[in-house]
Amino acid sequence: MARKSGGSAGVVVTGLTVAALAVIGFFAYQASAAQDRAEKPSASHSASPSSSPGSSSGDKGHKKEKSTALPKNSGTGERIVYALAERRVWLVGEDGRAERTFAVVPSTVSPKPGSYKVTSRSAHVTGSDGVPIEHVVRFTTVDGVTIGFSAALDGSMPDPDASHRTGGVREKREDGAALWKHAPVGTPVVVVR
């Protein structure tokens, strides 16, 4: 750095240097804080082993986490768990931990709680309600109605028409793709209340 002669010019240069360092320090602090926020998502944005985002903070967030917890007494090992009352499915790995959970829209005909196995699969078909569907994973039949998981090609998940007997448990397309990968024929399916 060049040395200035004269008292007041040296003070001005030193003052500008201090001010410049303060501005640089402030920007470095801001960048560091932004990085910390990016690495540590808040509770409102973090997700449990599910595809569902958490809700806002407070009791609502706690209730959301609790509602997505794998039901007790829902079997062991790799499986699919379907909770009728919660309208929710869990994909459980070999270690017994939920790898993914998601909401579903139940069919008008539901299976009784119990243990089943995937019996057949179809990549693309027309559902019993006339809607084109994909990733169909069937696991039982109730009174002549085949029950299985599927996703509508148009992404819709409307409540089924109670006047028609249908067996399709509808899920979002991305959830259907995940279930399809998780559930070859013979995969256990546990249905709970």
Task: Give a structural overview.
There is one protein chain. The protein is an alpha+beta fold. The protein has two domains: 33 residues; 116 residues, L,D-transpeptidase catalytic domain-like, CATH 2.40.440.10. The chain has three helices and nine strands; from the N terminus they run H-H-E-E-E-E-E-E-E-E-H-E. A five-stranded mixed sheet has the order 3-2-1-9-4, with helices on one face. Strands 5-6-7-8 form a four-stranded mixed sheet. The longest helix is centred in the first third of the chain and has 33 residues.
* Strand order, sheet with most strands: 3-2-1-9-4
Shape category: globular
Number of helices: 3
* Beta-strand residue percentage: 25-35%
Largest sheet: number of strands, sense, barrel closure: 5 strands, mixed
Given helix and strand content, the structural type is alpha+beta
CATH architectural name of the largest domain? Beta Barrel
Give the CATH superfamily of the largest domain. Answer: L,D-transpeptidase catalytic domain-like
Give the proportion of residues in helices: 25-40%
Describe the secondary-structure layout:
Blueprint: H1 7-39, H2 59-67, E1 79-83, E2 88-92, E3 98-103, E4 114-117, E5 120-126, E6 132-142, E7 145-152, E8 168-170, H3 173-182, E9 188-192
Parallel strand pairs: 1-9, 7-8
Antiparallel strand pairs: 1-2, 2-3, 4-9, 5-6, 6-7
